[in-house]
C-alpha cells in the first residue's frame, strides 16, 4: 500500500493537486499506524520471550523457540541487586 501511494504521489499524471495532497495525508497516517502496530507487536513479542525464558542458574536465562522457518535463541544475563555494603567495599 505504501508503494502504491508513493507511486501515485511521485508519478501521478492526474493534475488535481487536492488528490495528491489527500494521498500524502493518507500515506502519513498509514505510516503512523504501521509504526504503532510494529511497536506493539515488538513489545508483545519481547514480553512473550521474557515470560517464556527458562532460568538456567542464578545469573543466566535462556529462550529457545523452533519452527519450520526459524529458530530463535536468546540468552540473558540476569543482574543481581548489589547491596549497599558491597558498594561501600568497592570504594
TrEMBL record:
InterPro entries: IC97/Casc1_N. It holds the Pfam family Casc1_N. It comes from the Eukaryota. This is IC97/Casc1 N-terminal domain-containing protein. Residues 1-79 form the IC97/Casc1 N-terminal domain.
